UniProtKB/TrEMBL annotation:
The lineage of its organism: Bacteria, Pseudomonadati, Thermodesulfobacteriota, Desulfuromonadia, Geobacterales. It comes from Trichlorobacter lovleyi (strain ATCC BAA-1151 / DSM 17278 / SZ) (Geobacter lovleyi). Pfam families: CRISPR_Cse2 (PF09485). Transmembrane segments: none annotated. This is CRISPR-associated protein, Cse2 family. InterPro entries: CRISPR-assoc_prot_Cse2, Cse2_sf.
Length: 188
């Protein structure tokens, strides 16, 4: 049973609309998308004109110094994802997508070991590298809103610590979604 997606960190639908509009815009400017994709870390993105164009499309608070690392991480990772009709993916969380098998297969796109490594990322650069790899494992068809929300959640926990309630922690939410969506092993 899949849970209904709730975006705790990407609450405002207007921000989701702006994020989608930006993502459409960089498809029309392949040079910007390429520069974002070539960045090796979120810190590298902070120096790109493509990132400043991203900030112009996002709410003003995304340009504040406390939010810049999360903004850079979102711009970097979403540049690697394909643009698609959101209703095609908006009911499946990013973590659940990682557990789904490719058509005709029975193994998850991301193995449990890689999934656990992704969850245990130590810093934004490592998290970014692993997220980009995960997006590629999904053939770049990630739920953009779930992914952006999860990046904001991860950055919040990285800066301020995890919530006292385990059910509100990103690791728990991801594990619940991943293991619920994991293909069931056939008993022989």
């Amino acid at each position: 049973m899949e849970r209904k997606l709730t975006y705790y960190f990407l609450k405002d639908p207007a921000i989701r609309v702006r994020l989608l509009a930006w993502r459409k815009l960089i498809d029309e400017k392949p040079g910007e998308r390429a520069r974002l994709r070539r960045a090796e870390s979120p810190d590298d993105v902070l120096l790109l004109d493509a990132f400043f164009n991203f900030l112009q499309e996002m709410p003003e608070e995304w340009s504040e110094s406390a939010h810049l690392p999360a903004s850079a991480l979102i711009a970097t990772v979403l540049a690697h994802a394909n643009l698609h009709e959101m209703n095609q993916y908006d009911s499946t969380s990013f973590a659940a997508q990682l557990a789904t098998a490719k058509e005709g297969g029975d193994k998850p796109r991301m193995s449990e070991i890689r999934f656990q490594q992704l969850q245990k990322s130590h810093d934004p650069t490592e998290f970014c590298r692993r997220l980009v790899r995960a997006v590629k494992m999904l053939d770049r068809n990630a739920n953009l809103f779930s992914l952006a929300n999860d990046i904001l959640h991860w950055m919040h926990e990285y800066r301020k610590g995890v919530d006292r309630n385990p059910q509100k922690r990103l690791a728990f939410c991801w594990a619940a979604d991943y293991y619920r969506a994991l293909p069931k092993k056939q008993s022989k």
